[in-house]
Amino acid sequence: MKEFDKDQLFGQYVVFAIEKQLCALSIKEVVEIIRIQPITEVVNDRDYINGVINLRGSIIPVVQLRMRYKLPIVPFNKKTRIIIIRNEDEGIGLIVDEVLMVTHIEDEQLEPPLEMFNTIEKDCFKGFAKVNDQLVGILNLQKVLYPEEVKEG
Questions:
Q1: pTM of the full predicted structure?
Q2: Total H helices, total E strands in the chain
Q3: Does residue 1 form part of some domain?
Q4: Do the domain assignments include residue 36?
Q5: Residue 5's pLDDT is what?
Q6: Residue 110 sits in a domain of what CATH number?
Q7: Would strands 21-26 and 134-139 be described as parallel, antiparallel, or unpaired?
Q8: CA quadruple 48, 87, 27, 59: dihedral positive or negative?
Q9: DSSP letter assigned to residue 126
Q10: What are 85-105's pLDDT values in tens digits?
Q11: What total of structural domains would you count in the chain?
Q12: CA-closest candidate to residue 92, choices 123, 124, 64, 126
């Protein structure tokens, strides 16, 4: 496994929930957070891509993170959000159950990915941080969005 690089991980993070797992993305990766809106289904080979939305004239693919991690699908509610991220000059929406906070994660709060934890694949995390006595997984967007392209043979 690659050496755990704490220096690249501390800073401001958007913390959100998927099922009972708390996850975070660097504020640098997040463009905006919007309420759920009509999603147009599209045929594609990745079943976790829910469809596309029209965001101020831009067509944005939307990833349902519950589908990505094979978690039970629940109806959207007033807390459901779409986190718009920028990945290699393309906007992508991530559907999450709830956005909880923006927080600062210090170097001493960080730990490398754990071998065993509850619901989501270990490789999808850069590391973990303890925030308000809860474990938060810092997502590795490349491995979340393109799992088949980063598996090592």
A1: 0.85
A2: 3, 11
A3: no
A4: yes
A5: 53
A6: 2.40.50.180
A7: parallel
A8: negative
A9: E
A10: 988 788 999 999 999 999 998
A11: 1
A12: 64
